[in-house]
């Protein structure tokens, strides 16, 4: 009976596949960033209301964040959708070379146009099945702005919007197909604004107090700090204001943007306290002032093996996807744009995805323009090098996430290649496949109470008595 329902689910999602592909393409065209995602949210909310969901918009202080619910009672399954793009990533679709459509414009360089549409397909799919078969439970689709920077889900977690959810499911477009089996890095973002006194750098330098000097001294201090932090931690920075264009002026203003990453939140906080001291010391040395502004922060992802295993089993009935010769040729154009250095890393990637694979299989996989193989289920204690705000809900309930290979093999996220291929039929097939896996895993949770019990027990064990605390101070609002 369960397999019959899963077949029904897949057929139901397939029948609406054109609608989901169209939504993905329209979001690709909107290419809205951070919290300013009105058109994208409008599109989702209109569709969800027509599908019978009850929608609440404007949660956690974010005008374009929403939660759409269907059903009643337990279990409550949360599906996470994203739809924010990246700044300055304008790129023409389907052209295998860098071709900017509009200078300074945005682009979907991380596939969130497809991510949101695939999550939508999964949520609507399980809703349709619940209505058809009279299943008890609740499905909630969370519309989450600002995953790239701003971390909307962290604000939602802080606000209590995820309370009562029993499990979270989501996915991400990628160049490989696998279930997440490792944690992510916690991250904190800050701005440091230095203010001094301007003066003529030649005639009266003694009267000036250089904010630019203060910023540079901070960077130097942090550079020395890097030797004294844990190996898995990272500190990134960028000048957002270097003062001005005239070298003969003592710069009265300078600003820095800092990111601090580490495997655990307490490690991030400890490094942050040391960075604060360096910033204040730089201001003291230069007789300037420093204003410290929070941007955002997110936690480290908590892997749930019980849910991951269930998700991986469902992937076996969906992958590999039936790509055509034309689609493989299309992806090959973008694969050819990879540098030799980037191609060399594919063998390492293939070995990590298929630890039991033969050398011939690894070589074959690494050389594919589109890696359509379903990766083995691999768990690792070593975290991935990136961060995601999916981590915050993962502290609150068991969470599972899959990657689907619908981007050219070897091309990195946040690249022009991802923008260029974002409206392709390969991406459309990928998002529909992700929706099917999400819906089938949601069905497992609805029908198999032992799965949910095991996942919750594991979740509590993973936390080890530690409670989720959002790193973002209460007085810091999205923006």
From TrEMBL:
Q: Name one Pfam family in it.
A: Peptidase_M20
What are the GO MF terms of this UniProt record? dipeptidase activity; para-aminobenzoyl-glutamate hydrolase activity
Which Gene Ontology terms of cellular component type are present?
cytoplasm
InterPro entries in the record, alphabetically?
Answer: Amidohydrolase (IPR017439), Aminobenzoyl-glu_utiliz_pB (IPR017145), Bact_exopeptidase_dim_dom (IPR036264), Peptidase_M20 (IPR002933), Peptidase_M20/M20A_hydrolases (IPR052030), Peptidase_M20_dimer (IPR011650)
Lineage top rank: taxon: Bacteria
Q: Which residues form a coiled coil?
A: none
GO biological process assignments:
folic acid catabolic process
In this protein, which residues make up the domain named Peptidase M20 dimerisation? 188-280
NCBIfam families, from UniProt? amidohydrolases
Q: Which PANTHER family match?
A: PEPTIDASE M20 (PTHR30575), XAA-ARG DIPEPTIDASE (PTHR30575:SF0)
Designated name of the protein: Peptidase M20
This chain's source organism reads: Youngiibacter fragilis 232.1
């Amino acid at each position: 009976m369960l397999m019959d329902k899963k077949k029904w689910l897949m057929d139901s999602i397939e029948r609406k596949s054109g609608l989901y592909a169209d939504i993905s393409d329209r979001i690709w065209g909107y290419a809205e960033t951070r919290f300013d995602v009105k058109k994208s949210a409008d599109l989702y909310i209109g569709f969800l209301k027509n599908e019978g969901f009850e929608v609440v918009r404007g949660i956690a202080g974010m005008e374009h964040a929403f939660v759409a619910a269907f059903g009643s009672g337990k279990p409550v399954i949360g599906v996470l959708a994203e739809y924010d793009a990246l700044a300055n990533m304008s790129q023409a679709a389907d052209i295998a070379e860098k071709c900017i459509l509009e200078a300074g414009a945005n682009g979907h360089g991380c596939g969130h146009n497809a991510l949101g549409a695939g999550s939508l397909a999964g949520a609507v799919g399980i809703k349709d099945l619940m209505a058809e078969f009279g299943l008890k439970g609740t499905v909630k689709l969370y519309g989450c702005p600002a995953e790239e920077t701003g971390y909307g889900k962290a604000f939602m977690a802080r606000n209590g919007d995820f309370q009562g959810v029993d499990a979270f499911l989501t996915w991400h477009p990628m160049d490989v197909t696998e279930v997440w089996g490792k944690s992510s890095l916690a991250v904190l973002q800050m701005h440091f604004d230095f203010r001094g006194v301007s003066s003529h750098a030649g005639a009266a330098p003694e009267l000036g107090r250089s904010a630019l000097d203060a910023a540079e001294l901070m960077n130097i201090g942090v550079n020395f700090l890097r030797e004294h932090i844990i190996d898995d931690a990272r500190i990134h920075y960028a000048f957002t204001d270097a003062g001005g264009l005239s070298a003969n002026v003592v710069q009265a203003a300078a600003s820095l943007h800092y990111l601090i990453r580490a495997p655990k939140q307490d490690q991030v906080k400890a490094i942050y306290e040391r960075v604060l001291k360096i910033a204040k010391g730089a201001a003291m040395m230069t007789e300037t002032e420093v204003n410290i502004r929070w941007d955002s922060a997110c936690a480290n992802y908590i892997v749930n093996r019980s849910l991951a295993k269930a998700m991986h089993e469902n992937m076996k009935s969906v992958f590999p996807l039936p790509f055509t010769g034309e689609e493989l040729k299309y992806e090959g154009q973008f694969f050819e744009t990879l540098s030799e250095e980037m191609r060399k890393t594919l063998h390492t990637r293939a070995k990590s995805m298929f630890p039991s694979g033969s050398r011939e299989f690894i070589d074959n996989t690494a050389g594919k323009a589109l890696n359509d193989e379903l990766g083995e289920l691999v768990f690792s204690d070593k975290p991935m090098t990136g961060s995601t705000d999916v981590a915050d809900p993962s502290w609150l309930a068991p969470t599972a996430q899959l990657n689907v290979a619908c981007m050219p093999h070897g091309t990195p996220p946040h690249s022009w290649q991802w923008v260029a291929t974002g409206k392709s039929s390969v991406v459309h097939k990928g998002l529909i496949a992700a929706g099917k896996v999400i819906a089938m895993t949601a069905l497992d949770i609805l029908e198999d109470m032992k799965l949910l019990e095991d996942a919750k027990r594991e979740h509590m064990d993973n936390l080890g008595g530690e409670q989720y605390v959002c790193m973002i101070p209460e007085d810091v609002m999205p923006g």
